[in-house]
């Protein structure tokens, strides 16, 4: 930040350096985006947020209330409604190159993971994916080898692109700010032949899996969809918890793939994670091992899940889960 003096009075001018992409879901700011804004703040430069979509007015207004945001850019247009990366990336390139942005951050969501490599190709910059920690404005910590090791990496790119693991950063407070909102009219042509066809959204009264403080997850040990629903639903209801699953459970058709926890699913770090009938494959552990308290229930005492569990219970889950639910 620097001050410009003109004709006897001072006005403050911000050099806008970090651009943060803010997603929305259900008319609200995505929790993962609130976490990625925390990472953007830690870079130590003024932060500008960018919001896309035809209904972005209310989201832009909500984002402007975040105290650490200096400015909100709103990009309107029906083509941005479903966050197609083929449409977002050319416009983001135009925004970045139209100002002095040195950093671009997005959450490591499905949208962020799709947008980041395309944007990197367009501006010829190597992205840093899934960061867990900001060391300084060019140095970050990220997981490698399925989360079994952490690497500290330094980027020498003129524009640093990074995606943020939401579970590693607390969400920013979304009240108290009053950032200016500006509209951006893009002249970028994507030339994309990708067309949005349809989507099927699961509606649930339960907490959203990626931001839930309590999660009950089921694995192959539940045998079938009927047992999965019969045992986990009542337990999750008693705990007001989200329901998750291992890839084995998803592949077996026990539940929708949006509930998958793991390296190829959602990365979570709740206060309480209960793993029911999950053996503990390395890909699943990569997605939940940072949970504060891990409870494992499995009939096999040699299951790998017990290596990361704080509390382990060996036994028949068909007897244990109903008894636990009843006592709760």
TrEMBL record:
<keyword id="KW-0813">Transport</keyword>
<dbReference type="InterPro" id="IPR014730">
    <property type="entry name" value="ETF_a/b_N"/>
</dbReference>
<comment type="function">
    <text>The electron transfer flavoprotein serves as a specific electron acceptor for several dehydrogenases, including five acyl-CoA dehydrogenases, glutaryl-CoA and sarcosine dehydrogenase. It transfers the electrons to the main mitochondrial respiratory chain via ETF-ubiquinone oxidoreductase (ETF dehydrogenase).</text>
</comment>
<dbReference type="Pfam" id="PF01012">
    <property type="entry name" value="ETF"/>
</dbReference>
<dbReference type="InterPro" id="IPR018206">
    <property type="entry name" value="ETF_asu_C_CS"/>
</dbReference>
<feature type="binding site">
    <location>
        <begin position="260"/>
        <end position="264"/>
    </location>
    <ligand>
        <name>FAD</name>
    </ligand>
</feature>
<dbReference type="Pfam" id="PF00766">
    <property type="entry name" value="ETF_alpha"/>
</dbReference>
<feature type="domain" description="Electron transfer flavoprotein alpha/beta-subunit N-terminal">
    <location>
        <begin position="18"/>
        <end position="200"/>
    </location>
</feature>
<keyword id="KW-0496">Mitochondrion</keyword>
<dbReference type="GO" id="GO:0050660">
    <property type="term" value="F:flavin adenine dinucleotide binding"/>
</dbReference>
<protein>
    <recommendedName>
        <fullName>Probable electron transfer flavoprotein subunit alpha</fullName>
    </recommendedName>
</protein>
<dbReference type="GO" id="GO:0005759">
    <property type="term" value="C:mitochondrial matrix"/>
</dbReference>
<dbReference type="GO" id="GO:0033539">
    <property type="term" value="P:fatty acid beta-oxidation using acyl-CoA dehydrogenase"/>
</dbReference>
<comment type="similarity">
    <text>Belongs to the ETF alpha-subunit/FixB family.</text>
</comment>
<dbReference type="InterPro" id="IPR014731">
    <property type="entry name" value="ETF_asu_C"/>
</dbReference>
<keyword id="KW-0285">Flavoprotein</keyword>
<dbReference type="InterPro" id="IPR029035">
    <property type="entry name" value="DHS-like_NAD/FAD-binding_dom"/>
</dbReference>
<feature type="binding site">
    <location>
        <begin position="277"/>
        <end position="284"/>
    </location>
    <ligand>
        <name>FAD</name>
    </ligand>
</feature>
<feature type="binding site">
    <location>
        <begin position="246"/>
        <end position="247"/>
    </location>
    <ligand>
        <name>FAD</name>
    </ligand>
</feature>
<dbReference type="InterPro" id="IPR033947">
    <property type="entry name" value="ETF_alpha_N"/>
</dbReference>
<dbReference type="GO" id="GO:0009055">
    <property type="term" value="F:electron transfer activity"/>
</dbReference>
<keyword id="KW-0274">FAD</keyword>
<dbReference type="InterPro" id="IPR014729">
    <property type="entry name" value="Rossmann-like_a/b/a_fold"/>
</dbReference>
<comment type="subunit">
    <text>Heterodimer of an alpha and a beta subunit.</text>
</comment>
<dbReference type="InterPro" id="IPR001308">
    <property type="entry name" value="ETF_a/FixB"/>
</dbReference>
<feature type="binding site">
    <location>
        <position position="298"/>
    </location>
    <ligand>
        <name>FAD</name>
    </ligand>
</feature>
<keyword id="KW-0249">Electron transport</keyword>
<feature type="binding site">
    <location>
        <position position="220"/>
    </location>
    <ligand>
        <name>FAD</name>
    </ligand>
</feature>
């Amino acid at each position: 930040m620097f001050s410009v003096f003109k004709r006897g009075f001072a006005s403050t001018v911000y050099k806008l350096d970090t651009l943060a992409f803010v997603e929305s879901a259900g008319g609200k700011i995505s929790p993962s985006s609130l976490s990625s804004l925390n990472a953007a703040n830690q870079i130590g430069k003024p932060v500008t947020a960018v919001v896309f979509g035809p209904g972005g007015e209310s989201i832009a207004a909500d984002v402007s209330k975040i105290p650490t945001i200096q400015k909100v850019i709103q990009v309107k247009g029906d083509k941005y409604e479903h966050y197609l990366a083929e449409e977002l990336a050319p416009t983001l390139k135009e925004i970045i190159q139209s100002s002095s942005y040195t950093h671009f951050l997005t959450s490591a969501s499905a949208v962020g993971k799709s947008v980041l490599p395309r944007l990197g190709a367009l501006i010829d910059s190597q992205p840093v994916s899934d960061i867990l920690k900001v060391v300084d404005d060019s140095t970050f910590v990220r997981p490698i080898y399925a989360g079994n090791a952490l690497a500290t990496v330094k980027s020498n790119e003129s524009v640093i692109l990074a995606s943020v693991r939401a579970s590693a950063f607390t969400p920013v407070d979304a009240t108290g700010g009053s950032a200016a909102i500006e509209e951006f009219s893009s002249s970028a042509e994507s030339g994309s032949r990708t067309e949005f066809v349809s989507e099927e959204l699961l509606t649930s009264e339960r907490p959203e899996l990626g931001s839930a403080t309590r999660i009950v997850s089921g694995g192959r040990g539940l045998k079938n969809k009927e047992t999965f629903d019969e045992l986990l639903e009542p337990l999750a209801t008693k705990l007001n918890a989200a329901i998750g699953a291992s890839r084995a459970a998803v592949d077996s058709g026990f539940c929708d793939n949006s509930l998958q926890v793991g390296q190829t699913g959602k990365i979570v770090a709740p206060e309480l994670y209960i793993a029911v009938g999950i053996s503990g494959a390395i890909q699943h552990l990569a997605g939940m091992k940072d949970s504060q308290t891990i409870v494992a229930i499995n009939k096999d005492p040699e299951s790998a899940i017990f290596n990361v569990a704080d509390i382990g219970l060996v036994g028949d889950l068909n007897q244990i889960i109903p008894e636990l639910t009843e006592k709760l």
